[in-house]
């Protein structure tokens, strides 16, 4: 009798992928030295070809990263019941925010991970603040209400509406988010410079200066998964399924455990892609182009598909800042790019996409499955596929 190997119950509903091997590593991960004079054009080149890059010499203090990572590790090591108490609940009315275990989003996606998803809310705290709709929510307040430009530059503090975390955790998250907002500004200004769009704050202000912008912080923990070692030695569970990020920009940090893979498209055939591993480098950050930035560049930048494969032996901890604009922000190609095209430049002069606001897109995104192509319903009819990328 042949007995078929069956995955352990803990892995039911989690899809398997081929285990990464050293040969899958992306040779020459695109890297940009953010302190270099030519950084803006390097950023644009990487976002066009790959949809992501590794930011080095970024100016973020290692202590800021270490303090939040230590707190995240401490939180994930706490008793399961304590973590579950901060979950967003289950079912269609549940909140995506707070602590989650294996369930990603509300539409049936599963992964070998646990996480904390936090909204960064910039309302000032006051007695009249509406009660939060979920159990974990950052509320940012102005440190100095009279200096609004400082506010724009990231001088914010974060308070938790609930006391699930220690003061130390709160402070660590606060300083980390400030650093990420600073990097988001730097990169988005470089994008504007590199594309010849003025003022250079056009994109950065939507995410960093607009008081109503929609920013998230996600802390992921992928426990080691030795369960398949003997029965399926060449397979690994999916940690986080393939997806693109809906926002403008994401900034990812991970510890030294591998697992992140990105889809690299053929230069000649846009429908063809290959999954490659991005070796971890805790001294750097990965900047990822989101769907909204793809639209704002009229498809010139690519929102890159990425996923995480669980590691058999080591825990992976990642921390991601997602920079989205205000819900009412129109998501459409930057006018100057279209105007330049109309005046005879080399870019397309019509938008490839139907118009939408970030609020509309976000609503649709949160009803979709992780791996769906969320921009497809917004593509204008009879548009050619996303332009062949520049080398
Ligand atoms: C399955 C889902 C999880 C997600 C919302 C969605 O319905 C589709 C997009 C997913 C994603 C991917 C990037 C970020 O991790 C995230 C927070 C986001 O903004 O979009 C997640 C959403 C989530 O985990 O709730
Ligand atoms: O953990 C990672 O490295 C990536 C996670 C991710 O893509 C996400 O949280 O959206």
TrEMBL record:
InterPro entries registered for this protein in UniProt: DIOX_N, IPNS-like_FE2OG_OXY, IPNS-like_sf, Iron_ascorbate_oxido_reductase, Oxoglu/Fe-dep_dioxygenase_dom
Signal sequence annotation: none
Cofactor(s) required for function per UniProt: L-ascorbate
Keywords assigned: Iron, Metal-binding, Oxidoreductase
Residue ranges of every copy of the Fe2OG dioxygenase domain listed in the record: 212-325
Gene Ontology MF terms: metal ion binding; oxidoreductase activity
One Pfam assignment: DIOX_N
Family: Belongs to the iron/ascorbate-dependent oxidoreductase family.
Protein name (record): Fe2OG dioxygenase domain-containing protein
Organism: Leersia perrieri
């Amino acid at each position: 009798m042949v007995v078929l190997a069956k995955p352990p119950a803990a892995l039911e509903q989690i899809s398997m992928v081929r285990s990464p091997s050293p040969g899958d590593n992306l040779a020459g991960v695109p890297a940009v030295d953010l302190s270099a004079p030519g950084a803006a054009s390097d950023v644009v080149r990487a976002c066009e070809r790959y949809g992501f890059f590794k930011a080095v010499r970024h100016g973020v203090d290692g202590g800021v990263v270490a303090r939040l990572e230590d707190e995240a590790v401490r939180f994930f090591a706490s008793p399961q019941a304590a973590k579950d108490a901060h979950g967003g609940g289950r079912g269609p009315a549940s909140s995506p925010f707070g602590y989650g275990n294996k369930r990603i989003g509300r539409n049936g996606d599963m992964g070998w991970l646990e996480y904390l998803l936090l909204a960064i809310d910039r309302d000032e705290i006051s007695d009249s603040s509406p009660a939060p709709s979920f159990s974990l929510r950052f509320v940012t307040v102005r440190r100095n209400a009279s200096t609004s430009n400082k506010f724009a530059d990231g001088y914010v503090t974060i308070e938790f509406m609930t006391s699930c975390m220690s003061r130390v955790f709160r402070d660590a998250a606060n300083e980390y988010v400030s650093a990420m907002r600073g990097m988001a500004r730097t990169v988005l200004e470089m994008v504007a410079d590199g594309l010849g769009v003025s003022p250079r704050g056009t994109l950065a202000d939507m995410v960093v200066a607009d008081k109503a912008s929609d920013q998230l912080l996600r802390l992921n923990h992928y426990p080691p998964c030795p369960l398949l070692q003997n029965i399926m030695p060449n397979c690994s569970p999916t940690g986080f399924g393939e997806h693109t990020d809906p926002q403008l920009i994401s900034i990812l940090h991970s510890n030294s455990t591998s697992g992140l893979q990105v889809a690299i498209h053929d230069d000649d055939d846009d429908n063809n892609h290959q999954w490659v591993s991005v070796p971890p480098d805790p001294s750097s950050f990965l900047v990822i182009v989101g769907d909204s930035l793809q639209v704002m560049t009229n498809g010139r930048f690519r929102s890159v598909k990425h996923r995480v494969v669980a590691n058999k032996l080591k825990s992976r901890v990642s921390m991601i800042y997602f920079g989205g604009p205000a819900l009412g922000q129109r998501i459409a190609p930057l006018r100057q790019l279209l105007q330049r095209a109309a005046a005879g430049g080399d870019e397309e002069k019509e938008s490839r996409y139907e118009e939408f606001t970030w609020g509309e897109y976000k609503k649709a995104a949160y009803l979709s499955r992780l791996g769906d192509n969320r921009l497809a319903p917004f593509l204008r009819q009879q548009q050619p596929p996303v332009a062949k990328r520049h080398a």
